Each structure stands twice: as C-alpha cells, then as structure tokens.
Amino acid sequence: MHEIPSVPVVITDIIDESPSIKTFVFSRRFPAEPGHFCMVWIPGTDEIPMAFSAQNAITVQKVGEATEALFALSRGDKIGIKGPLGNGFSPTGRTLAVAGGVGAAPLRLLATLGMADDFILGARTAGELLFSKELADVTNLKCATDDGTHGHHGFVTELLRAADPASYDTICVCGPEVMMKAVLAILIDAGCPEKGQFSLHRYMKCGVGICGSCCIDHSGLRVCRDGPVFTGDVIINSEFGSYTRDASGRRKPI
Questions:
Q1: Which residues have a Cβ under 8 Å from the Cβ of 197 and sit 6 or more positions away?
Q2: What ranges in 146-200 are assigned the alpha helix state H?
Q3: What is the CATH number of domain 7-85?
Q4: CATH class of segment(s) 95-253
Q5: How many Å apart are CA 102 and CA 176, to the nearest integer?
Q6: How far apart are CA 4 and CA 84, in angstroms?
Q7: For residue 29, what are the contacts with CB-CB under 8 A and spacing of at least 6?
Q8: Parts of the chain belonging to CATH 3.40.50.80
Q9: Pairing of strands 78-85, 7-18
Q10: How far is Cα of residue 105 from the mean position of the Cα atoms in its chain?
Q11: How far is residue 183's CA from residue 221's CA, in Å, rounded to a whole number?
C-alpha cells in the first residue's frame, strides 16, 4: 500500500470561531474534496485525524491533549499534514447539508464549492453557529439553536422533518453521532436511508487502512479507508450511534 507522506506546513492564520473552536489556515493548498480528512501531526504531541474545512485549513474543537497542544501554537509555527485521505461526499441532484457543531467543517467545503442547495446548521447557541454568514451567501441556510438565541429554537432534526427529506436526492450529514443517528432515523422513516451520506469520526492510528483501529462493527469497514463518509443503508445495522472504541479497543458508549 502506498504510504502518503506527512507534509510540513506553516500556520499562516488562526481564526477564533468560538471560545472552543479555531480554524487553522496553512501555507499549502491540498487537493481535498468535501469530506476528505487529513492526519495532523502536532510536533512533540500526537498525530490526529481532522476534516478539511478548506483546501488549506482545518477547523478544530479543543477536546483533548492533542487539540490543546494545537491551540497553543501561533502563526508561523509548523505542523504536519498527511492527506487528503479517505473518501468524500458524492452528492448528486438536489442536495441538502445538515451540520451540528464542529461538524460544519467538512460541509463548509461542500457549500463553498457550490455542491449544496440547502443547508441546515445547528449549535447549542448563536455564538457557536460556524460559518453562518459564509454559508448564507452560498446556500439557502436555516439555523437551529438549542437555546433559541438564533433561528429555530430546537434541533436540526426538527428542521429536517419540515424540509421533507424525501424530496432531496442527497443529504450530507456531519456532527455529533447522536444527532446523525437521529437524522438516519428520519430518513429510514421517509423510506430513503440510502440518500444520506454520513461522515463518521473514529479513533485512528495510521489513517491509511493498515492498523485496523477504526474498523466498525459488524462489517469491518475501515473508517479511514472505506469512509469516513458512508451512506445510511450501509450503517443501519452497525455500531453507528451506539458506541465507538478508544485507543485500547474498548467500547465507549455514545
């Protein structure tokens, strides 16, 4: 199997998106398509998977040691990027994007490349709605916030039901897995789970399909190589929405 090298890049800009989310812009543009990810090497700390939010950027939420180390970097510092990796979204016809929280990152690229007609964006509060102004310029955007501070007071799933999911040819989804599982349930009820394309996040060691750490039950499909984007009909009877695994392989309930 051909090994993809990690390429050193310089951080050219850091954008504060919310108190816990930053976008890191780097000096090199990669041929990433919407949904592709990269392995990000943070010198002296770890290498972790991140979705491209632009062909020269990643958008990161601070959730652990590696992301904390990334947040401590400044403009001019170097990181390593291995990618693009995995498969991407492959929309056809009338397309809806559904994003929750930092799940807006890979779907941003879908929208900015003109591949999404409508967009449903959700977050806990107005200040955490990622890329809302940019997305409103290129799609028909509807927002939902848990606390009602912007748009619909409630969840993206409520906006999805109102949008008549069966009327779309493709529905691209990324966000917390509990949210994505609820979206899949709506598509199953509408009789069209195959229209959903879901971007999964799993623990990865290699990112290129060798180590098997990101295989999902019960199919054994590798999230890094066969995904991270899977259609709804493929993951209906999988671990999706139930559990993931940690670095030791133990199940972690979602």
A1: 35, 89, 90, 91, 170, 171, 172, 173, 229, 230, 231, 232
A2: 156-162, 177-189
A3: 2.40.30.10
A4: alpha beta
A5: 8
A6: 9
A7: 55, 56
A8: 95-253
A9: antiparallel
A10: 6
A11: 21
171 contact partners, CB below 8 Å, separation of at least 6: 95, 96, 97, 98, 160, 165, 183, 187, 195, 196, 197
- Taking only the tens place, the pLDDT of each residue in 132-150 is 999 999 999 999 999 999 9
Q: Which ranges in the chain are annotated with CATH 2.40.30.10?
A: 7-85
- 77-113 burial, b at 16+ Cβ within 10 Å, e below that, comes to eebbbbbbbbbbbebeeebbbbbbbbbbbbbbbbbbe
Contact by Cβ (8 Å): 195, 187: yes
Q: How far apart are CA 73 and CA 68, in angstroms?
A: 9
Q: Structure tokens of 235?
A: 């993951």
What are the pLDDT digits (tens) for 216-234?
A: 999 999 999 999 999 999 9
**Residue 44 has which token pair?**
């002296």
pLDDT digits (tens, 9 = 90+) for 35-62: 999 999 999 999 999 999 999 999 999 9
Q: How confident is the model at residue 1 (pLDDT cuts 50, 70, 90)?
A: very low
User: What is the rounded average pLDDT for all residues in the chain?
Assistant: 95
- Cα 166 to the center of its chain, rounded Å: 23
- Which one, of 173, 207, 175, 158, lies nearest residue 48 by Cα? 207
Residues 120, 156: contact at Cβ < 8 Å? Answer: yes
Run of H or E including 133: helix 132-138
Average pLDDT score over residue span 158-164? 96
